[in-house]
Design a protein that fits this description.
This protein has 4 helices and no strands. By secondary structure, the protein is mainly α.
């Protein structure tokens, strides 16, 4: 609802529908999901030359934390209508990335 999608996130709906399926629809969805993952990882990697993240930061782990917080917020909001979900998702992601920031300071 918050994003203007009264039926919820179409990506998560498709994931639920196709996760155990076989065939072209599943293969297309997996390929698209991998492309999104690669894009997010590359965006995290852009923070290294900018001096925002420590060299020891694992871009895959940060991407996982982002996706986990989004999924958790989606479920809390869509299933329980918990208005705290967006703030909790942001807090969860901030907690995951804070130790990786140069200087350890939140932005």
């Amino acid at each position: 609802d918050r994003a203007g999608m009264p039926a919820g996130c179409p990506v998560l709906a498709i994931a639920q529908e196709l996760d155990d399926a076989e065939g072209p629809a599943h293969d297309f969805f997996v390929a698209s999901h991998r492309e999104l993952h690669v894009l997010l990882v590359s965006m995290v990697r852009e923070a290294f030359p900018a001096g925002d993240l420590l060299d020891s930061t694992d871009p895959e782990r940060i991407t996982f934390a982002l996706q986990a917080s989004v999924l958790g917020a989606h479920q809390a909001w869509r299933i329980r209508r918990d208005p705290r979900a967006p703030a909790w998702a942001q807090d969860l992601f901030e907690a995951a990335i804070a130790p990786c920031r140069v200087g350890g300071h939140p932005k």
